[in-house]
Specification:
The chain has 155 residues and is mainly α. It has a domain of 67 residues. It is 43% helix and 0% strand.
Length: 155
């Protein structure tokens, strides 16, 4: 490095001399390219397709050593069973049965009554039950709402 050259100029001079000689220590080595990832660049260098990129239904391929790899196996998922819905509570339409289902107590606070109403509605709302039980669900919801409203008035 010369005394009258800055460090930057010295590096530029070294790079230009290396390019002229062809003796760059990194010649022929790919390092990085902004905007391209290594899988894109390596794709062109690979002689075999990447694992899993074979077309479906293709004949078995070999790995170059004579051993063959099996074709990918197609797995069909088993159909999901319908969830069993317990609809026995829709048959209980008397106010006593509904009061038992709600579990109303004389010591309930307004927050507890609100929670019990929502829990009951989650299981008995007409929009969440089978169509053949919607009328019974509507009746149960009406009676339950009247009971909770009456309990709230008494507090």
């Amino acid at each position: 490095m010369s005394v009258d050259m800055s460090a930057f100029e010295a590096v530029l001079d070294k790079v230009s001399n290396d390019r002229a000689d062809g003796s760059s220590p990194r010649s022929g080595v790919w390092t990085a390219m902004r905007g391209w990832n290594s899988s894109f660049v390596a794709e062109g260098l690979r002689t075999k397709p990447w694992p899993g990129r074979e077309q479906r239904g293709a004949v078995n391929s070999t790995d170059g050593l004579g051993a063959s790899t099996p074709a990918p196996r197609q797995v069909t998922p088993a159909p999901r069973p319908e969830p069993a819905t317990d609809i026995s509570h829709f048959e209980r339409l008397s106010p006593e049965d509904i009061a038992k289902d709600i579990d109303l107590l004389a010591s309930d606070t307004p927050a507890e009554l609100k929670s019990k109403r929502r829990r009951f509605a989650r299981l008995n709302h007409p929009d969440r039950c089978p169509p053949e039980w919607r009328e019974a669900a509507t009746t149960r919801m009406k009676v339950a709402n009247q009971m909770v409203d009456e309990a709230l008035r008494r507090i």
